[in-house]
Amino acid sequence: MPIVVGVDETPVSERVLRKAIDEAKLRDDLLHVVHVYHPPLMYFATTLTEPVDFATHHREKVWERLTPLLEMSHIDWERVDLDGYPGDVLVDYASNVKASLIVIGTRGRGDLSSLLLGSTSHRVAHVAACDVLIVKT
After folding, report:
1. Higher pLDDT, 40 or 49
2. Would you say 32 and 130 are in contact if contact means Cβ atoms under 8 Å apart?
3. CATH code, domain carrying 80
4. Alpha carbons 87 and 110: distance in angstroms, whole number
5. Which domain, by its residues, includes 128?
6. Nearest residue to 31 (alpha-carbon basis) of 68, 69, 66, 5
7. CA separation (Å) from 91 to 48, 83, 94, 119?
8. In this predicted structure, what is the pLDDT of residue 40?
9. Which residues contact 90 (CB under 8 A, 6 or more apart)?
10. Which of 3, 43, 83, 107 would bridge with 39, disulfide CB 3.0–4.6 Å?
11. What are the distances in angstroms from CA 137 to CA 13, 14, 56, 72?
12. Backbone φ, ψ for residue 108 (5° rounding)
C-alpha cells in the first residue's frame, strides 16, 4: 500500500519528505509526493491586466527544491499536483490510492492563526481513514 506525503513551499517540507522517504524504505512502498495548490485570498482580490499562472509558478518552486532529494533517495515515487483545500484533497487522494499512511508536517502556527487559517495537519489527522504521521517542526 502506498504512502502519501503532503509537501508545500516551506522549508519544513524537506524534513517531512525525508521522514516519508524513511518510511517508504522501511515499508518498501511506493511514495506519492503530493503538492496541493490552494490560491491565497489575495489571488482572488487582485485585478490583473495579464493572466498569470500562479499555480504553475508555485509548483515549479516546490518541485525545484524537492526533486533532487527524491532522486537521491533511490525509492519509487510519483509526483502528484492537485488543487483545492490541502487537508481535504490529501485525505481524498490517500483514500483513492488506498494509502496505508499519510505523512504531513506542521507549520507551528499559534492557536489563533490555526483557528483563523485552519490547520491542514489537524484536519488530516481527524478525517483520514489511514494512519497519519505528523512531523513536528
Report:
1. 40
2. no
3. 3.40.50.620
4. 18
5. 3-135
6. 5
7. 33, 13, 5, 14
8. 62
9. 4, 6, 34, 36, 102, 104, 120, 124, 128
10. 43
11. 10, 11, 27, 23
12. 75, 30
Number of domains in the chain: 1
CB 126 within 8 Å of CB 102:
no
Closest of 11, 12, 58, 68 to residue 35, by C-alpha: 58
Q: What is the pLDDT of residues 57-110, one digit of tens each?
A: 889 999 999 999 999 999 999 999 999 999 999 999 999 999 999 999 987 544
Instruction: Tell me the three cell numbers of residue 99.
Output: 494509502
With 0-12 CB in 10 A as exposed, 13-18 as middle and 19+ as buried, what is 26? exposed
